[in-house]
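Input record (one chain):
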Amino acid sequence: MPILSRAALVEHLVRTRIAGDVATPRDNNLAHYRRLANGDRHYWFGLELGDRWTDEQDVLAVMAERCGVVDDPAHRVGQDTIDPELTVDGLDRLAARLRKAAAGRERVLFATGHPGSLVDVHSRIAGALRARGCDVVRIPGGLVADEGYVVQFADVAVFERGATLWHTHSPEPMNAILDALGEDGRPDLVVADHGWAGRAGQRGIDSVGYADCNDPALFIGEQEGTMQVTVPLDDHVVDPRFYEPMTAYTLAAAGLA
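The corresponding structure, as predicted from the sequence alone:
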Protein backbone atom coordinates (compact mmCIF):
# COMPACT_ATOMS: atom_id res chain seq x y z
CA MET A 1 0.00 0.00 0.00
CA PRO A 2 1.37 3.49 -0.87
CA ILE A 3 2.42 5.52 2.17
CA LEU A 4 0.29 8.63 2.48
CA SER A 5 1.77 12.01 3.33
CA ARG A 6 0.63 13.60 6.56
CA ALA A 7 -1.78 15.88 4.70
CA ALA A 8 -3.22 12.99 2.68
CA LEU A 9 -3.62 10.88 5.81
CA VAL A 10 -5.45 13.72 7.57
CA GLU A 11 -7.82 13.92 4.60
CA HIS A 12 -8.37 10.15 4.72
CA LEU A 13 -9.07 10.20 8.46
CA VAL A 14 -11.69 12.92 8.02
CA ARG A 15 -13.30 11.31 4.96
CA THR A 16 -13.66 7.92 6.68
CA ARG A 17 -14.69 9.55 10.00
CA ILE A 18 -11.84 7.95 11.91
CA ALA A 19 -11.33 11.56 12.97
CA GLY A 20 -13.01 14.88 12.24
CA ASP A 21 -16.81 14.75 12.62
CA VAL A 22 -17.05 11.32 14.23
CA ALA A 23 -20.09 9.12 14.79
CA THR A 24 -20.05 9.25 18.59
CA PRO A 25 -22.52 11.99 19.68
CA ARG A 26 -21.66 14.73 22.14
CA ASP A 27 -24.15 13.60 24.79
CA ASN A 28 -22.56 10.12 24.85
CA ASN A 29 -19.10 11.64 25.29
CA LEU A 30 -20.24 13.82 28.19
CA ALA A 31 -22.07 10.93 29.86
CA HIS A 32 -18.87 8.88 29.85
CA TYR A 33 -16.82 11.78 31.22
CA ARG A 34 -19.37 12.16 34.02
CA ARG A 35 -19.29 8.47 34.86
CA LEU A 36 -15.49 8.47 35.04
CA ALA A 37 -15.60 11.54 37.30
CA ASN A 38 -18.23 9.84 39.48
CA GLY A 39 -15.88 6.92 40.09
CA ASP A 40 -17.45 4.29 37.82
CA ARG A 41 -14.53 1.91 37.33
CA HIS A 42 -15.98 0.54 34.10
CA TYR A 43 -14.79 3.83 32.59
CA TRP A 44 -11.37 3.83 34.28
CA PHE A 45 -10.01 1.15 31.91
CA GLY A 46 -7.84 -0.51 34.53
CA LEU A 47 -6.22 2.72 35.72
CA GLU A 48 -6.32 3.84 39.35
CA LEU A 49 -7.49 7.45 39.23
CA GLY A 50 -8.20 7.92 42.92
CA ASP A 51 -9.97 11.20 43.63
CA ARG A 52 -7.92 13.22 41.15
CA TRP A 53 -10.58 13.43 38.43
CA THR A 54 -13.88 14.04 40.19
CA ASP A 55 -14.77 17.16 38.17
CA GLU A 56 -16.36 16.44 34.80
CA GLN A 57 -15.08 19.77 33.48
CA ASP A 58 -11.47 18.74 34.21
CA VAL A 59 -12.04 15.58 32.18
CA LEU A 60 -13.53 17.62 29.33
CA ALA A 61 -10.51 19.93 29.36
CA VAL A 62 -8.13 16.97 28.94
CA MET A 63 -10.26 15.57 26.13
CA ALA A 64 -10.35 18.91 24.34
CA GLU A 65 -6.56 19.21 24.57
CA ARG A 66 -5.56 15.62 23.79
CA CYS A 67 -8.42 14.38 21.60
CA GLY A 68 -9.89 17.51 20.06
CA VAL A 69 -13.48 17.35 21.26
CA VAL A 70 -15.40 20.62 21.43
CA ASP A 71 -14.12 22.50 24.47
CA ASP A 72 -17.35 24.42 25.18
CA PRO A 73 -19.10 22.97 28.28
CA ALA A 74 -22.38 24.41 27.01
CA HIS A 75 -22.26 22.15 23.94
CA ARG A 76 -24.31 19.25 25.33
CA VAL A 77 -25.80 17.45 22.31
CA GLY A 78 -25.13 16.97 18.62
CA GLN A 79 -21.86 16.60 16.74
CA ASP A 80 -18.51 16.11 18.45
CA THR A 81 -15.06 15.89 16.94
CA ILE A 82 -11.64 14.30 17.03
CA ASP A 83 -8.86 16.55 15.73
CA PRO A 84 -7.16 14.60 12.90
CA GLU A 85 -3.92 16.51 13.47
CA LEU A 86 -3.87 15.16 17.04
CA THR A 87 -4.50 11.68 15.64
CA VAL A 88 -1.45 11.92 13.40
CA ASP A 89 0.60 13.45 16.23
CA GLY A 90 -0.35 10.39 18.30
CA LEU A 91 0.63 8.04 15.49
CA ASP A 92 4.02 9.76 15.30
CA ARG A 93 4.55 9.26 19.05
CA LEU A 94 3.44 5.65 18.72
CA ALA A 95 5.87 5.17 15.83
CA ALA A 96 8.75 6.54 17.92
CA ARG A 97 8.04 3.98 20.65
CA LEU A 98 7.77 1.18 18.09
CA ARG A 99 11.11 2.24 16.61
CA LYS A 100 12.65 1.95 20.07
CA ALA A 101 11.12 -1.51 20.50
CA ALA A 102 12.56 -2.67 17.19
CA ALA A 103 16.00 -1.26 17.97
CA GLY A 104 16.06 -3.08 21.32
CA ARG A 105 14.39 -6.25 20.02
CA GLU A 106 11.93 -5.91 22.85
CA ARG A 107 9.31 -8.33 24.04
CA VAL A 108 5.93 -6.93 22.91
CA LEU A 109 2.35 -7.92 23.74
CA PHE A 110 -0.62 -6.96 21.56
CA ALA A 111 -4.24 -6.95 22.74
CA THR A 112 -7.57 -5.40 21.80
CA GLY A 113 -11.00 -4.87 23.26
CA HIS A 114 -12.25 -4.05 19.75
CA PRO A 115 -11.75 -7.31 17.82
CA GLY A 116 -14.25 -6.27 15.15
CA SER A 117 -12.13 -3.33 14.04
CA LEU A 118 -8.59 -3.19 15.42
CA VAL A 119 -7.27 -6.77 15.22
CA ASP A 120 -5.67 -6.18 11.83
CA VAL A 121 -4.08 -2.90 12.97
CA HIS A 122 -2.38 -4.67 15.88
CA SER A 123 -1.56 -7.80 13.87
CA ARG A 124 0.24 -5.90 11.11
CA ILE A 125 2.40 -4.05 13.62
CA ALA A 126 3.15 -7.31 15.44
CA GLY A 127 4.32 -8.91 12.21
CA ALA A 128 6.55 -5.94 11.37
CA LEU A 129 8.18 -6.01 14.81
CA ARG A 130 8.73 -9.77 14.65
CA ALA A 131 10.46 -9.30 11.29
CA ARG A 132 12.88 -6.92 13.04
CA GLY A 133 13.71 -9.46 15.74
CA CYS A 134 11.21 -8.55 18.46
CA ASP A 135 9.68 -11.28 20.59
CA VAL A 136 5.91 -11.03 20.08
CA VAL A 137 4.39 -12.51 23.23
CA ARG A 138 2.51 -15.78 22.87
CA ILE A 139 0.03 -15.90 25.74
CA PRO A 140 -0.48 -19.07 27.81
CA GLY A 141 -3.46 -21.24 26.96
CA GLY A 142 -6.48 -21.74 29.18
CA LEU A 143 -6.69 -18.22 30.58
CA VAL A 144 -10.05 -17.28 32.10
CA ALA A 145 -11.45 -13.82 32.93
CA ASP A 146 -14.91 -12.26 33.22
CA GLU A 147 -16.65 -15.62 32.69
CA GLY A 148 -14.93 -16.06 29.35
CA TYR A 149 -11.57 -16.92 27.86
CA VAL A 150 -8.53 -14.89 26.94
CA VAL A 151 -7.28 -16.19 23.60
CA GLN A 152 -4.91 -15.08 20.87
CA PHE A 153 -5.82 -14.48 17.26
CA ALA A 154 -3.30 -13.30 14.64
CA ASP A 155 -0.81 -12.41 17.43
CA VAL A 156 -3.44 -10.31 19.24
CA ALA A 157 -4.96 -11.19 22.62
CA VAL A 158 -8.76 -10.94 22.63
CA PHE A 159 -11.68 -11.89 24.87
CA GLU A 160 -13.86 -14.81 23.81
CA ARG A 161 -17.16 -16.03 25.19
CA GLY A 162 -19.59 -18.48 23.61
CA ALA A 163 -17.48 -18.93 20.46
CA THR A 164 -17.64 -15.15 19.85
CA LEU A 165 -14.98 -12.47 20.19
CA TRP A 166 -16.28 -9.73 22.47
CA HIS A 167 -15.91 -5.98 22.74
CA THR A 168 -14.69 -5.31 26.28
CA HIS A 169 -13.46 -2.43 28.42
CA SER A 170 -12.43 -4.75 31.25
CA PRO A 171 -8.88 -4.86 32.62
CA GLU A 172 -9.31 -8.43 33.85
CA PRO A 173 -8.13 -10.15 30.64
CA MET A 174 -4.86 -8.21 30.87
CA ASN A 175 -4.55 -9.16 34.54
CA ALA A 176 -4.96 -12.81 33.57
CA ILE A 177 -2.21 -12.56 30.95
CA LEU A 178 0.30 -10.73 33.13
CA ASP A 179 -0.33 -12.97 36.13
CA ALA A 180 0.21 -16.07 33.97
CA LEU A 181 3.36 -14.71 32.35
CA GLY A 182 4.95 -13.78 35.68
CA GLU A 183 7.99 -11.57 36.05
CA ASP A 184 10.16 -13.72 33.78
CA GLY A 185 7.70 -13.40 30.91
CA ARG A 186 6.78 -9.77 31.49
CA PRO A 187 6.62 -7.75 28.23
CA ASP A 188 8.70 -4.65 27.70
CA LEU A 189 5.86 -3.00 25.79
CA VAL A 190 2.10 -3.46 25.45
CA VAL A 191 0.32 -2.18 22.33
CA ALA A 192 -3.40 -2.26 23.01
CA ASP A 193 -6.57 -0.31 23.76
CA HIS A 194 -9.34 -0.12 26.38
CA GLY A 195 -8.72 -1.84 29.71
CA TRP A 196 -5.97 -3.99 28.23
CA ALA A 197 -3.81 -0.90 27.71
CA GLY A 198 -4.79 0.89 30.92
CA ARG A 199 -4.11 -2.05 33.20
CA ALA A 200 -0.74 -2.75 31.59
CA GLY A 201 0.28 0.85 32.21
CA GLN A 202 -1.07 0.71 35.75
CA ARG A 203 1.09 -2.35 36.39
CA GLY A 204 4.20 -0.44 35.37
CA ILE A 205 4.65 -1.69 31.80
CA ASP A 206 5.27 0.69 28.91
CA SER A 207 1.82 0.91 27.34
CA VAL A 208 0.65 2.57 24.13
CA GLY A 209 -2.73 2.42 22.49
CA TYR A 210 -5.76 3.86 20.79
CA ALA A 211 -8.86 5.48 22.32
CA ASP A 212 -12.13 7.00 21.17
CA CYS A 213 -13.55 10.38 22.16
CA ASN A 214 -15.99 8.74 24.60
CA ASP A 215 -13.19 6.86 26.37
CA PRO A 216 -11.33 9.47 28.44
CA ALA A 217 -9.36 7.21 30.77
CA LEU A 218 -6.38 6.48 28.53
CA PHE A 219 -5.99 10.18 27.68
CA ILE A 220 -5.92 10.93 31.40
CA GLY A 221 -3.40 8.09 31.74
CA GLU A 222 -1.11 9.80 29.23
CA GLN A 223 -1.67 13.14 30.97
CA GLU A 224 -0.50 11.56 34.23
CA GLY A 225 2.31 9.53 32.65
CA THR A 226 0.83 6.08 33.28
CA MET A 227 0.24 5.63 29.54
CA GLN A 228 3.09 6.47 27.20
CA VAL A 229 0.95 7.17 24.13
CA THR A 230 -2.79 7.43 23.52
CA VAL A 231 -3.84 7.93 19.89
CA PRO A 232 -7.27 9.57 19.45
CA LEU A 233 -9.52 7.95 16.85
CA ASP A 234 -12.92 6.41 16.30
CA ASP A 235 -12.14 2.84 17.29
CA HIS A 236 -14.97 1.17 15.37
CA VAL A 237 -15.66 2.66 11.96
CA VAL A 238 -17.90 0.89 9.48
CA ASP A 239 -15.10 -0.80 7.50
CA PRO A 240 -11.92 -2.02 9.26
CA ARG A 241 -10.01 -1.56 6.01
CA PHE A 242 -10.27 2.18 6.54
CA TYR A 243 -7.50 1.82 9.15
CA GLU A 244 -5.02 0.37 6.63
CA PRO A 245 -3.52 3.72 5.46
CA MET A 246 -3.13 4.77 9.11
CA THR A 247 -1.30 1.53 9.91
CA ALA A 248 0.94 1.85 6.87
CA TYR A 249 1.81 5.43 7.88
CA THR A 250 2.68 4.30 11.41
CA LEU A 251 4.93 1.48 10.20
CA ALA A 252 6.72 3.81 7.78
CA ALA A 253 7.23 6.44 10.47
CA ALA A 254 8.65 3.75 12.76
CA GLY A 255 11.06 2.54 10.04
CA LEU A 256 9.20 -0.78 9.86
CA ALA A 257 7.59 -0.52 6.42
